[in-house]
Amino acid sequence: MTTLATGTDTLTRDALTVLQPGFAGTSAPDWLLRRLGEGLASVGLFGRNIASPEQLASLTAQLRAERDDVLVAIDEEGGDVTRLEVRTGSSFPGNHALGAVDDTDLTRQVAFELGRRLAACGVDFNWAPSADVNSNPDNPVIGVRSFGADPDLVARHTAAYVTGLQAAGVAACTKHFPGHGDTAVDSHLALPRIDVDPAVLAERELAPFRAAIAAGSRAVMSAHILVPVLDPDHPATLSHRILTDLLRGELGYDGLIVTDGMEMRAIAGTYGIERGSVLAIAAGADAICVGGGLADDETVRRLRDALVAAVRTGDLPEERLADAARRVRALARWTASAATSADRGGAHPDIGLVAARRALRRTAAAPCPPLTDAPYVAALTPVANIAVGDETPWGVAAELARFLPGTETGSFAGEDAGHAALIAAGERRIVAVVRDEHRHPWMTAALDILLAARPDTLVVEMGVPQAPPRGALHLATHGAARVCGRAAAEAIAGR
């Protein structure tokens, strides 16, 4: 039964309703349950909150015992960005692999299976898919999270993903509007600027969002990016021109607008989270995502009080806050309805591995027979971006060891990576694993050293395969999910 504290006024309840906070731990803390009773309507989950499917189901049941219509959100893209399988690697290969296959029915099936697993654990709102067109190969934060660099391809797969996810009863949240693909700056760290003319923006960045809206995406997430052609003064998350005039007006979108994480430096470092949240709601956002870094009751209190104070001083129209809260509640009603009407059949637990195998691209200058002896896997490891995190294992060593027991591995980075890997490998055959080689000069130099000394080295690219293929065998997985490593290991060992 939904409970609301009788002493909480409508304005305060609305301010709590538009927040989507996170918390620490694998069970709900007392402060979070209290806030749910006072009007908080959404909770965001991250890898730190999840230990197993059973534990997650228990956690969501605990939340719904306090408020039965709570929206339970998660950042589960599959592929490199996984929260369900943060400690093992994902069972799904991610967007870039799906784009490489370019089978929209496969994308729909993968999204459905992912949604089915989320729904089984009590999660009903997914901050996915990424609809960004990865037009800038130097993009440090999107990369394999994108279906690709072609707007039409990204559009059709975004629509397929939305359709599949929502068929499982989980609301999709298409991101990052109006498009985070053409930047070399990570908005977790600074404010990116995208300088494009209106025609390019309309044909490239906006095409996937139009497709998502047509497919019925229940939510859209804003990007912390500056797009001067749309608004020279405000990042998209805080821009009335972008969220209200463009997204609501020109594109005709009527669902929930969610901000990207407000503690990201693009907002927190320039406006602060309190002022940023007020400006976001005033601009047209309906829900404030916070909790990836700030995950405590004090953050909720600060944002609640900032919104209430802004209404009372006239900086935020009360009707705008009420409209935002209404949209949050409308999505909660949709998820409750979708849960009862969702397709419960069609489970395909291996669809992620099927997709990863189909996405694998093999290049060899000459015939390269499968390995029969345990190799040395040299992982040339870049610094992970914040969206991906460094908790999730990646590579091929663990999967390859299943086929070739005795496989050893090491991680290398920096100017001495190539020489260090050669020494560590000794006489063993080398499998060099890279991630976005084209973005890391030290990685290219390390591969040069390895291939000069050991031309029989096998190379596995687990990022965007932008650099020319090389090595005795070059495998492009189009992602670093666990199933991508499995598909590569099968090819290396001839299984």
List keywords for this structure.
495 residues; alpha/beta; 18 helices; 14 strands; 41% helix; disordered N terminus
Summary?
The protein has 495 residues and is an alpha/beta fold. The protein has 18 helices and 14 strands.
Radius of gyration: 23 Å
List segments where confidence is low: pLDDT < 50 over at least 5 consecutive residues. 1-7
Helix content: 40-55%
Mean pLDDT: 94
Q: Count helical runs.
A: 18
Number of DSSP strand runs = 14
Terminal residue distance: 53 Å
Derived from helix and strand composition plus strand pairing, the structural class reads alpha/beta
Q: Quick one: overall form?
A: globular
Strand content: 5-15%
Major sheet: size, sense and barrel closure?
6 strands, parallel
Order of strands across the widest beta sheet?
A: 2-3-4-5-6-7
Structure, explained:
There is one protein chain. The protein is α/β, with parallel strands linked by helices. It is 41% helix and 11% strand. It contains 18 helices and 14 strands. The strands form 3 sheets. A 6-stranded parallel sheet has the order 2-3-4-5-6-7, with helices on both faces. A 6-stranded mixed sheet has the order 9-14-13-12-10-11, sandwiched between helices. It has a two-stranded parallel ribbon with strand order 1-8. Helix 4 crosses helix 14 and helix 15 crosses helix 18. The longest helix has 24 residues, at 318-341.
List the helices and strands and how they pair.
Blueprint: H1 10-17, E1 19-20, H2 30-38, E2 42-45, H3 53-66, E3 71-74, H4 95-101, H5 104-120, E4 125-126, H6 151-167, E5 171-177, H7 198-205, H8 207-214, E6 219-222, H9 240-250, E7 256-258, H10 265-268, H11 273-283, E8 288-289, H12 297-313, H13 318-341, H14 351-359, E9 361-363, E10 376-380, H15 397-403, E11 408-412, H16 417-425, E12 430-434, H17 441-453, E13 458-461, E14 473-476, H18 482-493
Parallel strand pairs: 1-8, 2-3, 3-4, 4-5, 5-6, 6-7, 10-11, 10-12, 12-13, 13-14
Antiparallel strand pairs: 9-14
